[in-house]
Structure formats: structure tokens, C-alpha cells
Amino acid sequence: MAAYDLAIVGGGIAGLGVFEAAGRAGLKAVLIERGAPGRETTAVTSGLLHGGLRYLPYDVGTSWLMCREIERLRTESPGLLTRQEFLWPVYRGEGLRLGLIEALHDEYDLFAAMRGARRHERLSAAEAVARLPGLREKGLLGAVSFDEWRVDVPRLVDALARSGSDAGGDLLEGRRVASFAVRGGRVAAARLDDGGEVEARVFVNAAGPWAEEVARLAGASMVRLRLRKGVHLVIPGAPPPRGLIFPGPGGRRVGVYPRKGETWVGPTDEPHDGPPGKACVQAQEQEDLRRALALVLPELAARPCRAVMGLRPIPRRSGAAFLLSREHRIFDHAAEGLPNLLTLAGGKLTTYRPMGEDVLAVVLKKLGRASPVPAPALEEAGMPWPLIRAGGLAASAGLLSFYAVRRAVLGAR
Questions:
Q1: In the CATH hierarchy, which top-level class contains the domain 4-41+154-225+323-381?
Q2: Is the pLDDT of residue 336 over 90?
Q3: Residues 6+ apart with CB under 8 A from 223
Q4: What pTM, to 2 d.p., does this model score?
Q5: Architecture of the domain defined by 66-152+227-313
């Protein structure tokens, strides 16, 4: 009998979600993390537990899932969350008009009660400046105000690690998996860099940006990731009273995120083609963010700042690039002759629990145990992903079109 039912490689929010879910299911689990849990990519997120406003035009299903998770966390751990009002200003000459932005928020309001938010509000230019002093007034036509939730990421990480440990799980910090021992067509053990070994019946690779590298250690090659680099400015000092959505470098919408004693601005979203360990903040990336911020909040942009960076591990998919989503995917390496190895990739901070529950369902099936939720249908067994995404895109576009037409009929600008 193996020492553990489940061994998880990677202690970011994805691995912690699996660790916590395994503990609730009564599995003997171990989490192996090369550093400290949640101190890599998870530590350099904006800290926003948002409801997927960005995804509404093409992936309303993911937005619904994110709003549902906010509802669950608000109910179970309200002390981790803080309401955060945001403004989305519109300036003369921009491609997006207030009417279209309000139509997007009309759709977002479908989930307002679920995520415990107030419905959006349209503001005049004077009202927007009154709510966010320092906002550039020249050319300002107005703004939309809406609610999101800020999460205490370190406390969330600690809570998940403690929950898994209290349920009997072991946490191995500062230990890196150097290789896997494969015997009899199964992964028998993870070999650590200090010479130790961890045996388990099932292994889950949740190494985030390093998931592709970890899979190769076991001889698995089906994991293919697109790494996206996200850079934030971190500006110390009193934060603005409200957050802000504005055009960042290249026109992509980025955010101003007030936090305790500092403000985060970003993130960028650029491809990174090299190894994860080679990624770094370029001086031009930091300067581009600062210049974009100066166009809307010049006083904040003038403060000294530093920059931090994280990598988003997005599963490679066939089909058009604009169909790319932030959903998670489970790779079952049984297709490569390794029936007790899974890889979890993708996902968002907000959806850590569905990720953990989906992986747990597959793990329990492999252990021959009943699962409280059905195992997710793997992509290879169902409809091709481009068709699934195209269907979701059509539904999302239909909803947005409905609200845009309704706004036009009502005479909104």
C-alpha cells in the first residue's frame, strides 16, 4: 500500500484547492511545493475575486461560474472579502461608448445578486471625478460604477493549507520534485531534490507555469501551455478610494486595484515563449504601464513604484486565438500509459474550488471510490473544443447584442 492516496506537485492556488478538497474527502494527501505555498504566481495576482466581466462578450459560462464561487466564499468565509467599487470612465475619442459599456454591465447585473454586488450606476463626468479625485477631467464623458470583491490572498492561501493539513494531509515546503520513478506502467514515486521519495497511488501535477516541465519528468508529453506574462505596478502609499478600469498598453483594459497601504496597476498580458524561470519584468513594460496610468490618474502615476510579474499557464487549444478562455483543463495521462498521473492547468484565482473538486472527482474514480460530484467529461471523449467554445461565444454575443439593442431603443448614448 502506498504511503499516500494522493500526491500533489505545486502549491499555488490550484494545488491548494486540490489539497483542501482531498482533505474534505478523507484522502491521505501530501502537497509538495518547491518554495512556500502561494508565493509564486498566486502571490502576484491583483487580489481581485472578480466575476468575469472581461469574459462576458465571449464566455458567459465562465463568468457565471466565477460569480457562483464568489457567492460561496462570501457565505463561508466573509472575513476574507472586502467590497471594492470600480469606475469605468469613458473619454471623448474612445472606441467604446457609454451605451455599449452600460449594455455590458446590464448583462453583468444578471449575476449581481449572486455575487452580492449592487447594480451598476451611470455617472456624469462631474460625479465620476467626485468619487475618484485626481481622475483626468479633460475629455471625460462619464463613467460606469460597479462592484467587485477584494480577497486577502495570503489569508486565503493559509486557510486552504491549514484545512488540508488539519484533515490529515502533509505539506512539504521547500522541496522540489527532481524526477519520477515509473514502474510497471505507473508513477510509483516522486523523487525529491534532497534525495527523499514520496509514494502515492495517484499523482496530480498542479505546478502552474511549470506544469509542462513537471509532466515531462514522468515521460508525459501531452501537456502544452501558452504562458502569458502579467506585469503589475505596485505603488506604495495611500490607495485611491475606488478602483479604475482603463486602457493599458496596446489598448487592453487593465485595472487600478486599491490594497492595504498600496495600489496595484495592471496586469499586462503578453506571451512568454521561454522557460518559466527566464521570465522577468522589462523596463519598457513598466514604463508603458506608467504612461498609460498617467493618462487617467496623473498624480498616482507620478509616485515611485516597483513592478512584479506572474505567468498565466493557459492550455494550448486548436482554433482561433480570440476563443481563448481562462477555464481549467485536466489532462489524464492514461492516454500516454500513465494511468495514475493527472495534470491540472489553467483556471483563475476565483475558481480554485471548482478546479479542486473536478480533479478530486477524477482522483476518486481512479481510486475506486464514490465521488460527491460526477467526474468531468474529458475533452477527448466529447465534442471538439472549438465547437464548444464557438457555441459559448454565440450565446455570449447574443446576450450582449440584446442589451445593446435595448439600450439603443431606450435612447442611451
A1: alpha beta
A2: yes
A3: 205, 211, 212, 215, 315, 331, 343, 345
A4: 0.89
A5: 2-Layer Sandwich (3.30)
